[in-house]
Write a structure and sequence with these properties.
alpha/beta; 9-stranded mixed beta sheet; 14 strands
Length: 695
Amino acid sequence: MTPAPDGRLRLAYQYAPQFPEPGPPPRRPTPPEAERLNPDWTAAQRHEESLLNRPLKAAFAVAVVVGLVVAALAAAGWLNVLVAGLGVICCTLVAVISGYALWQGERALRSRLADERARVGKMRAAQESRLYAWQAEHATRVREWQALRAAYEKQKRWYAVCAPGGVHRVDVAGGTLSGWSAMLTTAAVNRLAAGGEITVLDLSEGAVALDLLGLAQAAGIDPLVWVLPDDLPRLDLGTGFGQEALADLLAQAASVADEQGSARDLALDNAILERVIGVLAENQQHQATVASVVAGLRALAQIGDPRDDVAAGLLTAGQADRLTAMFGRGATDRVVLERAWILESQLRKLAPAGTALAPRPRSALRVVALGQRVGAVGSRVLGTYLTVALTHLLREAPPGRPWQHTLFVLGADKLRGDTLDRLSDACERSATGLMLAYRGIPPHVRPRLGRGNAAVAFMRLGNAEEAKAASEQIGTEHRFVLSQLTETVGVSVTDTTSSAYTSTIGSVSSSATSWSHSEGSSRSTGHGRSDGSLLLPSRASFSRSDQAGDSHSTSESESVSTGINTSTAWGMTTAKATGDSESLALALQRSREFLVEQHELQQLPASAMIITYAGPAGRQVVMADANPGIGGLAAATPLTLEESRAGPAAGSEAAREPARAQVPPGAKSWRSGRDRPPPNLGPPPPRLDWRRRRS
């Protein structure tokens, strides 16, 4: 899969064939029946001539017979010579006249037959001339049809849909787990092939990134995968923060149950945590950890025996005494202690974080996912903890190239609105690409869709109210064409809820062994750091990626493209759908047209998405398919539709595109009956003889 030419995020592929199907080839002209002299007409002419000449023949015969009889009688002396001579002369005259008439009639008949033969010859020559003209025109039309057919078959039907320039965030509303898997694989593979770095926060508990992980491993990239809460001890995210940052992080994580809570509660939590962390930080060489903060909250709220935490090394005896005596037991202080008790009940789930860290080489792909054993409250606490910790790291990271580091948050609807706002602002300041995927459109998400300079993608929305709101936001006047491939593959690929992640951080020894083997490939992609795994890329790593990006993108894109077809369900299903000529013809054609309406959004195929963003020409709305297997088709191109129409000058990738067959000017449609050869009507009817009497 070739990366986007200008480093933009590739969201999906747009089905937009430029040339229509030319239809069947033009029919070969039917040669007309050759003109020939009609034997029936000739026989009729001869019969008619015979009827006309019958009296003349009788007169000629009678004259000859009478003349011979008269001559014989005269020779025998029975008839006077003068009378006989006069009779012979009269018979001779009658015979000559009738014979001449017979000869003239035969001559006229032959003349008519000769004229008819000449006429038939001229008509035959004209027929042959017209046939040659029809055949020449047919050959021209066949060449035109072949050019149309070649243009239709060689054209690119799938064009890349990229995030427009200047957009730093993409909001995805709706979708199934399989649709998210396709979307994540398509977008992340593009950035990995370009030498970028990918961080995935999978809060969906559905193992959405499994296809991406298998694809990365097939391409020679060793990803890092944390499955929480089991891998919390080996998670370095959130460790090493200062007092204020750690207090803010834990206060935000503990406030997930108070979605409608006021800023006063958050400020109170922050103040309590800062005081507890301040006590823990005194006379300590190391910074406070989440486990020690939770132990301090237990001591403050007098939950259990503080000597157990002292024995575990989380607190010292002096710190326990100071925390116990920090607040009294008055009415105001009782509120503080109750709040500390609530904080401890929320944050105890995070106590193992960072307690068993081990150095690991850096990876271009990092996935932090919630396991299937996490509870409802635990998933919200862990999700907020991860998001806020990343927000703090992004705020301290120097700005880099846009989308060089891309963060995917799947299941972002579990996060509070203020948490989403802070993460978005931090990503924008650090030029980190951000994609937020929401299963639904809850009230706190709806006003944030597309806020700022962001693109919005709508996928399948099963809820009727959410689908109606989405259709109103897109605009119900838009009409889209859905590809047959989108429907076919979308039905074939099932959700990934039955699968689960396999942690790569579970064993320090096995992890170190596997990562030592992948050190070379990791460095070849421009990521030279070998320290903790979830630390964001520094300015140095960005510059190294710039230098090495061009050198490795070709070979890596080839392996990535191969991995899509062999390692992902989407790639294998797409290859099967287009495996033979018949299915290819079906899979690459248009399926149906539809308007953006509520029921249409509720039955969109799994990988279909409607992308809307603000462009130079106004608001753009595009129907696309996030199926990653489309990138491996010969009918797909990494160029956008606009770049392809602009020609080779639009970018270097366009120069390497195969030349399209040019449509001949004046090419006609062969689906109608126009411009066809006239039918063969046969020879003309017999011509009447001039001697026939008219009634």
